[in-house]
Amino acid sequence: MRRLAWHVAKLAEIRDETPTARTLVLDIPGWPGHLAGQHVDVRLTAEDGYSTQRSYSIASAADGERVDLTVQRVADGEVSPYLTEELRPGDELEIRGPVGGWFVWRPDGTRPVLLVGGGSGIVPLMAMIRAREQAGSRTPFRLLYSLREPGERYYAEELRKPISGLDVTYLYTRVVPDGWARPAGRVTVADVNTGGWPAEFRPECFVCGPTGFVETVSDILLAMGHDATAIKTERFGPTGG
Ligand SMILES: Cc1cc2nc3c(=O)[nH]c(=O)nc-3n(C[C@H](O)[C@H](O)[C@H](O)COP(=O)(O)OP(=O)(O)OC[C@H]3O[C@@H](n4cnc5c(N)ncnc54)[C@H](O)[C@@H]3O)c2cc1C
């Protein structure tokens, strides 16, 4: 198996997504390119030599040596508060990747696509939406995006504009906008039935988010008759190490 190299990335720009999540735009000399859905390992090393690493999905479609990550600050976390609060443009980070060959969408795919994201699980799904746009693909996409409240939407402006062939459904778990028909609550069979594809359409399904969310949605899809091999999952548990 090919050994992945560590690269030194420079932070080019920071974009606020929400009060607690930021997109880090990185320039990575020697970056080999990536597929939508892949992630990277980020390594931080302190002056005393202590080093720690975490995984982060790539948010952007392939774009030369530029890679976007979106990091949610986890209160009391070791790495995410540093990445979201301390890092400044011009600072350097060590990055290894791209990692993962299963949870990927390729623009030559023709089957309809269902994307189901919980919280920061939207990140690799957004890379797929962006890769579809970049390739001029007409593959029909449906996105179910579960999040606590409207203020936690990542990529809010980009997803607000209509994208031909992409249907977006927001599932709020705690607070809904005024006049919103669906009451606040976790994802249900009815949500996936209404906002997803019938199993007979044989969609490729990508499910990403916290472990419990991924398991619930996978069980719903299986119960609806979707083929287990068509359900690809990525769990954002703690990575540590
Ligand atoms: C393949 C993969 C891709 C990922 N992609 C992203 C991404 O695109 N954006 C992103 O923000 N994160 C992503 N993560 C999660 C990320 O790797 C870290 O786990 C997260 O940033 C927390 O790290 P930390 O050092 O701040 O917290 P830690 O110091 O590791 O943990 C602090 C406390 O928070 C808990 N905790 C850790 N991670 C989480 C979490 N994700 N949710 C809730 N509680 C947690 C721990 O159990 C612990 O109690 C991904 C994880 C995986 C496995």
UniProtKB/TrEMBL annotation:
Pfam families: FAD_binding_6, NAD_binding_1
Annotated InterPro entries: Cbr1-like_FAD-bd_dom, FAD-bd_FR_type, FNR_nucleotide-bd, MRET, OxRdtase_FAD/NAD-bd, Riboflavin_synthase-like_b-brl
Names of the cofactor(s): FAD
Keyword terms, alphabetized: 2Fe-2S, Iron, Iron-sulfur, Metal-binding
Molecular-function GO terms, alphabetical: 2 iron, 2 sulfur cluster binding; oxidoreductase activity
Domain FAD-binding FR-type intervals: 4-105
Name this polypeptide is given: Oxidoreductase
